[in-house]
Each structure stands twice: as C-alpha cells, then as structure tokens.
Amino acid sequence: MRVLETTVDLDATPSEVWDVLTDFAAYPEWNPFITSISGPAVPGEHLRVDLRSPGGRTVTMKPRVRSAVLARQLSWLGHLGIPGLFDGEHEFVIEPGSNGSSRFTQRETFRGALVPFLGRLLAQTEQGFVAMNAALKARVETR
Length: 143
Known about the structure:
Layout: E1 2-10, H1 14-21, H2 27-30, E2 34-38, E3 48-52, E4 58-61, E5 64-69, E6 73-79, E7 87-96, E8 102-111, H3 119-141
Antiparallel strand pairs: 1-8, 2-3, 3-4, 5-6, 6-7, 7-8
C-alpha cells in the first residue's frame, strides 16, 4: 500500500470549493491533472475520469463513486486492469477553516501487486496533485 496526500488552504468556503469540484463540465477549463470527468457524483455510480500527470500520458479510468458528502468529501475507487493489480481510492476532502476559508486535501491510497513497481507513475501522480491543488486555489479564489 502507498498513500499520496497533498493539502492546500483556500480563501473560499467549503460550499464554494464543492461547487468547483463537482462542476465536472468545467474541468477542461482549469484542471491540468484531471482533465475530464463525466458521470454523476452519486455513491455506487461510475465516473469516466481522464488523468494527465505532468510528463505523462492521458489515462482514462472508470471508477465507482464511494462517497459524495455535500461540501465535505468526494471519493472513488478505480482499477487499472484487473482489480487487485493496481487499485486507487481517490479522495477530495474539504474542511472548514476560519473566516470562511477551507482546507482541501487530495489523497489517493494505492493497493495491489503492481504498486511497488510503479514508483515513477506515483511520483508523476503526486506532481499532478500539486498542480491541481494550485489550479483549484486560483479557480475558487478568483470566482
């Protein structure tokens, strides 16, 4: 198992952050890492997610939504290939801060037989998290 986690403080309310995160149609306008999402943010439903890590190629996944808690959390579980080889549970967590601010955490827990062999991919993914967090900050703070 390997966990990647990045956090950014935002000058925006949790509801404002949630509105940007769940406006999947607008992702191509601002998100350099998750370039496209389609499907409903409803537990049990599938999404189509296009990811592009810095220096990497676009990968399409079809994860199943695990949780969607208004203005608090969105998570999904995806697999590359056969479940158990390389699985990732991706989470967006929004915590309220002081004076109408928020803390946004992006986390992914990787499990499976291939995890120990994909260090470069995981490093690129972490760079993608950082790029997305910066883009999210710019997006929500200029609305």
